[in-house]
Design goal:
Largest sheet: 7 strands, antiparallel
Structural class: alpha+beta
Strand content: 15-25%
Shape: globular
Radius of gyration: 19 Å
Number of strands: 15
Helix content: 25-40%
Length: 368
């Protein structure tokens, strides 16, 4: 059985066992954390940080979690809303006047967070996503594909620029700076949107699915292997230095399971964690107010969207390209986070769900 490092409460033995099974089945590396009441009951890792399997995954190894980053960017917006600095019902153009161009004056801030703004596709060159002014200028020129709020279509890359620009217009700071100074820093969380060169040595690069190479592109879970509309994103792009340095707030966050679970535990614990108050209970509750329920035009499957998070029964969270995932259950104040450098084909990847279910096994014993 794969060697699993770290620590865990004996009630949650199923979690490290499940990670070991994944590694035994061929996965390269990964980490899992389960927090209850803001404290870790599981913090484990194993496998390797490189495709050649020569560098062990360490306690401080970090990885690109792709769209799990959206939950971090959403938290920035929710913090500003809780402070009264951001009105979720306001037109985006109140904060970003140029955005009103091309019929976007009816798009409200909540439409950005719930993937209902009608701007799902990034159709510019990949290189332009590393240039914030160029990326946001491209979005300013776009017209919405549907009446804002009337339908949902996953804003895979665009959501981060849209929400991030609003954060910048209000706070005077990039979303990466705001997140570092207002959230990650106070909590002591090792999560980064825009990664400094000093951390490169700790990064586990993404490993394509078996039989694929770095030309492998992102696809929507409900659409088999068909890439989403717009510019295709390759594993090669996500593994580039340019990607790490850029702030791509929908997809370029770097962290480990511990840091993901730590940050999102603020949401599970009513906004206050380890003496740090990020937002109020009401501010947390906003995240899981349903904004849309139905078929997502991009993902090709039924989805319920809250404000920056997907809704799943009595839990909320989101996953990233390649398998990383975070799930929050406010009733039990539990957060489960799984991150990995090993991609699988989307149709064959249930690893995050399996980790969540194994965590529930422990939670039953803990609450007994």
């Amino acid at each position: 059985m794969a060697d699993i490092q770290g620590s865990y409460d004996g009630l949650f033995t199923a979690v490290p066992n499940r990670l070991a099974e994944m590694l035994d089945a061929g996965d390269t590396g990964g980490s899992v954390a389960v927090f209850v009441d803001g404290e870790p009951v599981v913090d484990v890792w194993g496998g390797f940080a490189d495709a050649e399997r020569t560098v062990p995954w360490e306690r401080d190894t970090i990885v690109n979690v792709y769209s799990v980053t959206k939950t971090m960017t959403a938290l920035c917006a929710l913090v500003l809303a809780d402070r009264g600095e951001l009105d979720l019902d306001a037109p985006v153009a109140r904060y970003w006047p140029e955005f009103a161009a091309a019929g976007k004056d009816r798009i409200r801030v909540r439409h950005l967070l719930s993937h209902t703004a009608g701007l799902p596709d990034w159709d510019g060159p990949v290189e332009e996503i590393y240039d914030w002014p160029a990326a946001t200028a491209r979005l300013v020129a776009l017209a919405p594909q549907w009446e804002p709020g009337s339908a949902a279509g996953y804003h895979s890359l665009t959501q981060g620029f849209l929400v991030g620009e609003v954060v910048w217009r209000i706070s005077g700071r990039s979303v990466g700076e705001f997140f570092a100074q207002e959230i990650a820093g106070p909590l002591g969380a090792d999560f980064h949107i825009g990664l400094a060169a000093e951390h490169d040595r700790r990064v586990a690069l993404t490993v394509p699915p078996p039989g694929r190479d770095e030309e492998y592109t992102a696809s929507a879970p409900g659409r088999g292997s068909t890439p989403a509309a717009g510019t295709a994103l390759r594993v090669r792009d996500g593994n580039s230095v340019a990607w790490r340095r850029a702030q791509i707030p929908a997809a370029s966050g770097f962290g480990n399971a511990r840091s993901v679970a730590l940050v999102q535990s603020a949401m599970a614990c009513g906004g206050t964690l380890r003496g740090v108050r990020l937002l109020s209970q009401a501010g947390c509750d906003r995240a899981w107010e349903e904004q849309f329920s139905g078929d997502d035009r991009v993902l090709g499957m039924p989805v319920r969207w809250g404000l920056g998070y997907g809704l799943f029964g009595n839990t909320y969270g989101w996953g990233g390209w390649g398998g990383s995932l975070v799930m929050i259950e406010p009733e039990t104040r539990m957060v489960v986070a799984y991150v990995t450098n090993q991609m699988r084909e989307p149709a064959d990847d249930n690893r995050g769900l399996e980790i969540v279910m194994s965590a529930y096994d422990g939670l039953v014993g803990l609450r007994a």
